Write a sequence for this structure.
């Protein structure tokens, strides 16, 4: 039995459906992420798990028990908000002690519980400091310690890294992974940041317009997206749509307007007359001044229209004679600003059949 079982949950606000018949299960000890753009429903779903909002239809079960009649303070889950919501007039110790006081935990037990929670987040010795004396990362860890001190069955995190700079987000992402392993409880994490979700999660539910478009492991979400939305939202991806012109065993040829025929591997059950989209990641495309001998099946010429230097890689946007736009990525193996092509350069792009992924309509 799953730790948390969300069964056909719907939530409406007037004429707007924020959550539309969503079902998913979260296992004990899992780092589970709700990922999607603003307004997709991920925070609404988190609020319903926490008890701050109630579904209009469906059920939310924790350890097999329906939570409908359980108020937030009595649910064995705790939430860490983006703002951290620390009390500025209380010390670190006071903030962490607050939920214990609300739960009427005997004073004789509190000190050990507080020390244990601060040790979990590596803030030993910070007991007497106030929030304004801490860094952003330290404040986040205090918020997590406060959530963990009551030994919840599940920790809910609502974009806790969003307000931090990029380097600190990276450092704290690693800390969150290690912390989740150490405490061993389920984390349900809400974010709109794709790279953050891919790095942190055991599984990801990609949400769009109140529905779950795909629920899978990060590598499968990235490498085998089930919908064009997932392919486009997770990282950078070229999407070439069109009818299936031909099929030979497990390879189909998609007739892509403005580009031409694109060959891609498929699973069983795709009819010759079907339409679909070929998803190909920029890093899978070879870009060169001229194609070498033995060029793979998909081979197209074009002109560099734009480029984006990103330090370790350069992203090239290439326009083909038919007017298609293709994005290709080239690693920078030289020091300094290594640009291998300039805007206006003629290039040839190629990729093998197995590099793309077919998404049927």
């Amino acid at each position: 039995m799953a730790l948390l079982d969300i069964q056909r949950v719907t939530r409406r606000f007037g004429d707007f459906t924020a959550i539309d018949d969503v079902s998913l299960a979260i296992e004990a000890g899992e780092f589970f992420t709700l990922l999607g753009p603003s307004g997709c429903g991920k925070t609404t779903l988190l609020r319903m798990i926490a008890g701050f909002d109630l579904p209009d239809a469906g059920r939310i079960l924790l350890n097999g028990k329906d939570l409908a009649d359980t108020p937030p303070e009595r649910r064995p889950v705790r939430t860490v908000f983006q703002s951290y919501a620390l009390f500025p007039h209380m010390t670190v110790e006071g903030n962490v002690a607050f939920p214990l006081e609300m739960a009427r935990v005997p004073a004789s037990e509190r000190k050990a519980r507080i020390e244990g929670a601060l040790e979990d987040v590596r803030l030993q010795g910070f007991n007497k400091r106030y929030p304004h004396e801490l860094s952003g990362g330290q404040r986040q860890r205090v918020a997590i310690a406060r959530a963990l001190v009551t030994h919840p069955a599940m920790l809910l995190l609502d974009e806790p890294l969003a307000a931090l700079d990029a380097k600190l987000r990276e450092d704290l992402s690693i800390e969150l992974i290690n912390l989740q392993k150490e405490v061993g409880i389920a984390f349900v994490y809400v974010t709109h940041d794709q790279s953050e979700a891919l790095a942190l999660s055991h599984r990801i539910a990609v949400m769009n317009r109140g529905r779950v478009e795909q629920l899978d492991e990060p590598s499968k979400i990235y490498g085998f997206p089930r919908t064009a939305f997932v392919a486009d939202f997770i990282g950078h991806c070229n999407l070439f749509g069109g009818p299936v012109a031909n099929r030979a065993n497990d390879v189909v040829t998609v007739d892509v307007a403005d580009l031409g025929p694109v060959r891609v591997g498929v699973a069983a059950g795709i009819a010759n007359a079907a339409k679909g989209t070929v998803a190909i990641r920029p890093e899978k495309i070879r870009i060169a001044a001229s194609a070498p001998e033995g060029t793979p099946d998909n081979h197209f010429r074009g002109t560099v229209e734009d480029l984006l230097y990103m330090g370790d890689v350069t992203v090239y946007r290439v326009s083909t004679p038919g007017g298609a736009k293709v994005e290709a990525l080239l690693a920078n193996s030289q020091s300094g600003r290594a640009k291998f092509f300039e805007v206006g350069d003629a290039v040839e792009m190629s990729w093998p059949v197995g590099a793309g992924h077919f998404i049927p309509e």
Q: What stands out?
A: The two ends are 34 Å apart (CA to CA). The mean pLDDT is 90.
